[in-house]
Specification:
Layout (H helix, E strand, L loop, with lengths): L1 E4 L3 E3 L3 E4 L4 E6 L6 E8 L2 E4 L6 E8 L4 E7 L13 E8 L5 E6 L3 E4 L2 E8 L3 H8 L5 E5 L4 E4 L26
Antiparallel strand pairs: 1-4, 2-3, 3-11, 4-10, 5-9, 5-12, 6-11, 7-8, 7-10, 13-14
Length: 177
């Protein structure tokens, strides 16, 4: 990928220096058509030019028009800071290739990251994959206030995926262990 910095934004050593509010940078890349496109930021951090400011909004807009907002709170705001520094944003599926993502920075300051990646997941085999994944399903599902249980029989080791928001204290057991 290639990053083009716009007015009042510069990039050096995985660090965007943003000198005024509401400026932007554009990530340009080659992607396959008929894919889902993701932006992954690892080790992301923000230090405001204004010491009293503890958050930043990033408006992320893909070339297909799909937009997401990422709100980041830094360690100076103990009420909201959650020590989260890794983000992956999906820009959806598009038959046409997504070729850029523009990041609009809400606030002046320094936005740093350890790694930035553009990921494209081709969807050409998606229907067949879903069909294979739905061969084995959890049965006799019981959902409680603090639990989800059920049974599944497999012919070989596989992964069971449940879409449950993360919460501390969750455990899993197989055959009672």
């Amino acid at each position: 990928y290639r990053i083009v910095c716009h007015k009042d934004v510069s990039l050096k050593d995985n660090r965007f220096t943003v000198r005024s509010d509401f400026t932007s940078a554009t990530i340009q890349f080659y992607a396959e058509p008929d894919s889902e496109t993701y932006l992954s930021l690892q080790g992301f951090d923000f230090v405001s030019a204004n010491p009293a400011e503890t958050m930043a909004d990033l408006k992320l807009t893909a070339s297909n028009g799909f937009a997401k907002k990422l709100t980041y709170y830094n360690a100076n705001d103990p009420r909201r800071y959650n020590n989260r520094h890794d983000f992956t944003v999906c820009f959806g599926y598009d038959k046409e290739a997504v070729t850029s993502v523009t990041i609009r920075f809400s606030s002046a300051g320094t936005y740093s990251f350890d790694a930035l990646e553009i990921l494209c997941q081709p969807m050409d085999g998606y229907a067949g994959q879903i069909s294979r994944l739905s061969e084995d399903v959890l049965k006799q599902v019981t959902i409680g206030v603090d639990s989800v249980s059920g049974s599944i029989t497999l012919d070989r080791p596989k992964i069971l995926c449940l879409s449950i928001p993360y919460s501390a204290g969750w455990m899993a057991s197989v055959d009672g262990k």
